[in-house]
Design brief:
single chain, Rossmann fold, alpha/beta
Length: 144
Amino acid sequence: MKILVLNGPNLNLLGVREPSLYGRRDSAALEGYCRGVAAECGAEVEMRQTNHEGVLVDWIQQSAGAFDAIVLNAAAYTHTSVAILDAIKAVGARVVEVHLTEPKEREPFRRVSYVGMAAEKTFSGKGFDSYGEAIRHLCGKAAD
């Protein structure tokens, strides 16, 4: 199984950005963690990060036929982007939504997830383990 892991705005600042919320491990540590979980499942991952909404839309569109599934942390775009929702629906990709924190326990504007409207499942509030659970779910190795 080939999984595309997409990270949205400000996730390149992991380890620096609000460590009380997001922890002290950086994006390189997240990539290593995801690769390790994928290897345990017999899968491979490709990691990408962008601060630009249109780039996420392009990557989702380009995933068709190239990847079996997407793990998507659209970050702030989760709560604002109909374009990302439409891209997911247009390509019919298997998408699992992830968040390091629990959006439902944060500011009210974070409680709406456009990504979640098309994702088959959401894992949130468990830091890096949210990604691990998403990868295992996609590989059929989860106890969810």
